[in-house]
Amino acid sequence: MSPSQPSETWHAALHRLQRDGIPHVLATQVTSAGSTPREPGARMVITEDAIFDTLGGGTFEWQTITVARACLAEQRYGLSLEAFSLGGRSGQCCGGFVNILLEAFPGATAHVAIFGAGHVGQEIVKLSAPLPWQLHWYDSRSDAFAEQYQQQPRLHCYLLQNAQQSVAALPSDTHALVLTHNHDEDYTLIKALIEHDDVASIGLIGSDSKWASFQGRLERDGYTADQIQCVRSPIGRIHATKLNNKTPYAIALTVVAELLWLTDTPSSQENRGLDSQALRTLMTDSPTTTS
Asked: How far apart are alpha carbons 3 and 261 in whole angstroms?
């Protein structure tokens, strides 16, 4: 019997999970020999706490779900191949053989907190929409978020009322950008962020003179040089050169480019795609001899 599952089809779930940046695994039956519950092309989608559609039920489906969730828990993303002898590994009476291709997707690859919903903040949000980031957008003005942003995937809007509480609620390893409409609010946020050890990076918008003023205030307030050096200001500099085009779009473009470098984490896998030996075995060996 197949595990209990939501009624959403695998393709609808795949679209939603990809759009919303939620980690998931697409399991596809790619071969079938002998008597099997379903035929090649059958698919299901697996998340940490839900499954969508079915490969036919039974023990081998439970085993597929277990392997898929282990990939998510251990952050083993990419392609892998699982072989099931339904009379051997899975102990099912039909006695056939299937290969299941698992495609594990990480969902959102980074969290970005944007403090400030002014012109630059709006452009950053727009430019970030196609990227695999979860965006956490804050502003102290209740009317700052236009309705058009409410439907953007992976975007969460919050009213900024208390800097310490908002920063404490950020996911671990969040990249924070501070660009509110008020310098005192910026300063309060910078203090909260440099006191929070779990922030991946801190960026502050403004001129060199603004940052020099903030540095002096931070020193007078007792912050160490190491804490102060955690702040990147002004944000959006390309190769340490100043940008002559200071339109909100141009500034946002350089900020997003900077974030792409900061959030880029190269894969540790030497092989891309399926293991070549596993693929050769799949294409040449007789499945009836595998257990």
From this structure: 42
Phi first, then psi: give them for residue 269, nearest 5 degrees. -80, 130
Return d(Cα 119, Cα 134) in angstroms, integer. 20
pLDDT in tens, 210-259: 999 999 999 999 999 999 999 999 898 764 456 677 899 999 999 999 99
Tokens of 26: 């697409």
Longest dimension (CA), the chain: 77
Query: From CA 41, how far away is CA 45, in angstroms rounded?
Result: 13
Query: In this structure, are 103 and 119 located in the same domain?
Result: no
Q: Are residues 184 and 121 in the same domain?
A: yes
Separation between Cα atoms, residue 84 and residue 86, nearest integer Å: 6
Q: Domain residues for 179?
A: 110-263
Helix (H) or strand (E) holding 102: strand 97-105
Query: CA–CA separation, 229 vs 91, rounded Å?
Result: 60
- Are 102 and 118 found together in one domain? no
